[in-house]
Amino acid sequence: MLRDVFWLRGETEMRFSNSWWITAAAALALAGCGPSGGGGQGTNVGATGELDVASFQGGYGIDFFQQAAKEYEAKHPGVTIKVTGGPRVWEQLRPRFIAGNPPDLTWPGWGFDYWPAVYEGQVLALDDYLKQPNPYNTGKDAPKTWGESFEPALLKLGQYDGKQYLLPYHYNMNGWWYNPDLFAKNGWQPPKTFQELLDLCAKIKAKGIAPITYQGKYPYYMIAGFLFPWAVSVGGVKVTDDAQSIVPGAWKSPAMLQAATMIKELKDRGYFEEGANALSHTESQMDFLNGKAAMIPCGTWLYSEMKNQMPAGAKMRFMLPPVVAGGQGDPNAILIGIEPWIVPTKGKNHDLAIDFYKFMTSIDKAHQFVQEKGTLMAIKGSDKPPLPDYLVPAAEAFRSSKTVYSSEYRQWYPELGTESENAMAALLNGEITPEQFCDRCEAAAEKTRNDKTLKRHTMTH
């Protein structure tokens, strides 16, 4: 099952204690650790030797990376690449990092605490490498540097304290999905505004169909699918930037309160599927695919996650969340999250690891990944036609949007993330009011602000 690194999901949402990085740091004496091969001044393209690659094995598998390794080996005789992985690969990597024997290149998956690893010097800064060309991008229109081949808004998500540590590969776009056949049959149009949504929901409910379902066991879906998009629509992206940057009062802003009130209005009108609070992600998504609900919030991983369970003839189409008419925000704003790879500081061959990742992020390989795995890539030009039908609206939305934002605070501040989800669950259950939801989140943000042991992040656009 695919899980977004910044939107942690699944049967069990677990995090490792940050303390193991402190233990690792003490054991490894990280001070003074630096890049091999000249600190990233040149790729070791002609080198011989072995490369150790470890990858999370989710909905996209690891077969693509294994095949890419074979192709790379054919281009570089004398290089041997071993690609291993698993659905909980971070558990295999933890003792390797502590022992000072991490892989050379890794996508450690959604259960890995990336930022504590960065804080403790376990992840290589890659800025010098990004200034180099990518030899696997050819042609007169090829980007001059490797860094220029990435979508800048996605590359930015892997930066801390002015340096680049995480590199994006594919990315997930959060939005809503609807059944185009059901809509066409009834003469319905995807709603563009919240008022249009309310009008449509009334018509859908009259047909005996739940207008909207959601992944109730994992309330963050509703934060990313309802709360943040509507807060941004009302007040602009600064609203969520400030909330994630734990600016005092940000979680109680008028825009955040209005967004929470909109969620409550949908609940009070009976426009959510009955019993959705108890549904897992796959259960609610199956209800959507089976026609029990007309719409569902989810990211662009939906097709990949559900393709093996999809009923015959089931269809899905992506749309952006309906906006608030007259709001200050960009009506085409989109919320995204990256699936980052890292180069461990203690890896044995940084240059070869980087060169292999350059190969995997070349425009041709990135487009191939889109075609084979059905997701969008962080590489410019990788969304060229042909695209899978269900990805076309998402790709068009990304290209036309002037505002790309993300949700990072759960990775930065886990306790704030947990409390915001608990508060969202209580709001959806009718246990608290929108005002109380905002109060709870602001109290958690205040606690985070007062915790001097936490590294600070600032979200800016």
User: How many beta-strand elements?
Assistant: 12
Tell me the fraction of residues in β-strands, as a range.
5-15%
* Oligomeric status: single chain
* Mean pLDDT level: 89
End-to-end gap:
31 Å
Radius of gyration of CA atoms, rounded to a whole number: 22 Å
The tally of helices reads 19
Using the coordinates shown, work out and report the CATH topology of the largest domain. Answer: D-Maltodextrin-Binding Protein, domain 2
- CATH architecture group name of the largest domain: 3-Layer(aba) Sandwich
* Fraction of residues in H or I helices: 40-55%
Detail the topology: elements first, then pairings.
Layout: H1 19-28, E1 49-56, H2 63-75, E2 79-86, H3 89-99, E3 105-107, H4 114-119, H5 127-130, H6 152-155, E4 159-160, E5 163-164, E6 170-178, H7 180-186, H8 194-206, E7 210-212, H9 220-235, H10 238-244, H11 254-268, H12 281-289, E8 293-299, H13 302-306, E9 317-319, E10 334-338, H14 350-360, H15 363-373, E11 376-377, H16 392-400, E12 404-406, H17 409-412, H18 414-428, H19 434-449
Parallel strand pairs: 1-2, 1-3, 7-8, 10-12
Antiparallel strand pairs: 4-5, 6-8, 6-9, 6-10, 6-11
Helix pairs in contact: 9-11, 11-19, 18-19
Structural notes for this entry:
Helix 9 crosses helix 11, helix 11 packs across helix 19 and helix 18 packs antiparallel against helix 19. The protein is 40% helix and 12% strand. It contains 19 helices and twelve strands. The chain has 461 residues and is of the alpha/beta class. It folds into two domains: 193 residues, Periplasmic binding protein-like II (D-Maltodextrin-Binding Protein, domain 2, 3-Layer(aba) Sandwich), CATH 3.40.190.10; 204 residues, Periplasmic binding protein-like II (D-Maltodextrin-Binding Protein, domain 2).
